[in-house]
Amino acid sequence: MALSHTLSRSLALSAAALVLASCSLAPKYKRPTAPVAEAYPHADTMSSGTGTTTAAATLRQTLSAQTLGGDLRLNRILALALENNRDLHITALNVERVRALYRIQRAATLPSLAATGDATRRQTPAALSPSGTRSIDSTYQAGLTLPAYELDFFGRVASLREAALQQYLASEEAHHSAHIALISAVSRQYFGLLAADEQLALAQQTLDAAERSYALNRQSFEAGVASELDLRTAEAQREAVRASVAQLEQSRDLAHNALVLLVGSPLPATLPAPGSLATQQLIDNLPAGLPSELLTRRPDIRAAEHSLRAANANIGVARAAFFPAVRLTAFGGSASPELSDLFEGASKAWTFAPNIALPLFAGGANRAQLDAAKLANRIEVANYEKTIQNAFREVADALAIAKSIDIQIDAQTARVTAATRRYELSEARHKAGVDSYLTVLLAQQELFTAQQQLVTARLSRLNNLVSLYAALGGGWDDTSETAAQTTARLTAKH
Fold first, then answer.
1. 367-381, pLDDT tens digit by residue?
2. Which residues lie within the region annotated Disordered (predicted)?
């Protein structure tokens, strides 16, 4: 009964300490004002024509998807990348590691009990013995021990726990950022591979035409109809295009290798056939929303804010160092000079040892730690503001490109049509003997350039949609949870 009473009293004191531990010296957190404009430039470029509330809901629903659309092959490749990419796997493991660190810090706020057993044998010299003779004493004890438990009167332990929690949440957001970055990188690389295939096909068509022109000029030269100048001009054009084909084949292979690396595994042969750049049905009507919505949507901004909250909590830790630290140590069990009597009724023993440490002189270390914590907080404020500004610029840049990219594609399409007709006319005039082969050569070069640049413009449009999608925080489900749900999730046992 004595042991039970002692432990009950110790636990009661610990519980009271938990109640008193509500005092925190950390400054009250206040989110810094976003250093950006209230609206994006060119925000009407991607407007959906719906009301603000409806547009915001549409944006959130759209951005929660894993892809921007695209063909079936891209969607299958994205699924493989999310499953196999090593960088994403590393960030997921890091989240679990930081979660474990948080659970360690959270455990420090609760008292702990340990079953202990000690055996001590001590010799006392005659000069120090009350009896004047050398003596040998033994002490045996066993029981339950409450190790030094800090009564968190000034919130030091609570602030440490809060800092650990915010660091964990920041690591989660870093994982979300990696998720978005992977979806964006795979999509861009896939579109780049499609562009390489299309440019290679165009180059091969141009090479076939150059081969035919060279053969015709050679026949004409051998028949004495064409000059050697025309023959060598056709030959030079053929070799130039052949070099372009080889270069584009190299670019295509490199693009494929880069995509395989991002996916984390070889691309299965059973994947659906790819579509063309022109047939990719991406979501191109994203309402940009407001910069204030970006603060709660983009994981990198949320991560920066969690880091700021952690720095804010660390100020509370540094301030608590100026105040007394109170710790409790307790023991309840049995103690006896003889091991055989250790568990006899008369051997019951208990110890209750509170300890208080009041900092008097630390050589300025506590003040320096507080200054360092405040400076770290200011650094995190600057990082948070910089992250917001960078996010704002990424959205604004994507909107600016979206404003003109369709005009560029229309112009390039018209240019290809005109260049095609010019090439047909120049070939006909050359065969009729009206123009020299140089006219055909120039027309062929113009057509090839126009076709390549049209592919590049289409690729730019798709890449810009991917950039806007990522800049707005797309690619992951940001369904919010309450503080209680977060705590329950973090403390759940594996």
1. 999 999 999 999 999
2. 115-134
